[in-house]
Predict the 3D structure of the following.
Amino acid sequence: MKGPLFYSKILLFGEYGIIKDSKGLSIPYNYFKGALKMDENPSETAIESNIHLKNFTVYLQKIEKESPELFSFNFEALTKDVNAGMYFDSSIPQGYGVGSSGALVAAIYDKYASDKITILENLTREKLLRLKSIFGTMESFFHGKSSGLDPLNSYLSLPILINSKDNIESTSLPSQNKEGNGAVFLLDSGIIGETAPMVELFMDKMKSEGFRNMLKDQFIKHTDACVEDFINGNVKSLFGNLKQLSHVVLDNFKPMIPSKFHHLWKKGIETNDYYLKLCGSGGGGYILGFTQDIDKAKKALKDYPLEVVYNF
């Protein structure tokens, strides 16, 4: 048995902001992927994944009992497959901000949900919000409160534009210019990030009025502008807003940036060779970078593995 592939995702803009209704833009990232699988001789990783799936199944059964209106699953088939050793075979790194649990949630929903909303339907806003709500509840099993966006992105394999909590739509991006010097890239911090403690830290900071005002007046303002610029292909304006956003993050989200990257972050803003921002909740994993000259950025960041994900 080998299920269909579900891909990782990158939240280009909106980390933390979407909790407070900023805009957001999430894109599928096909470099990493996962699928449900069975093996005659499972590896240690497969056995570990299978244990997670057993616990996840128990959690889903509990949710279905408590909220039958939310979703229903074919638990007979799911339990049978899990007991037979099914696991999630995935190349998506965990704790890297690229949606490892999201792909798993999408795979389970796709295979076992009864009356599932399929990607072949006319995906109205209501259907997208319903899917997001189902996925948010499912993914909460893995790291506390979840928006449901990662599994939604993985399930649909389409870019998703978040206008606000109750207003999301699939969208198209300007076509890539493979010859262009401009690029979005991932920088590997070499550290595994934990989502739950970072979100907890953010919620704690939200108790301060100064932090809340900064979030609204600066962070969300620049995030929203970046989303608009990116979708409309306004490269010049995008980099102006990115510089501001990178600055705001460095000043106000320092604990979410691994300490050895503080100077690189600052250097990017000072030289304009590249701008860095959080990829997911931060604390480790990938850092997202934007540059108008990828050769300059590669030179400046030569000590770190760098992966281009989008060309301007």
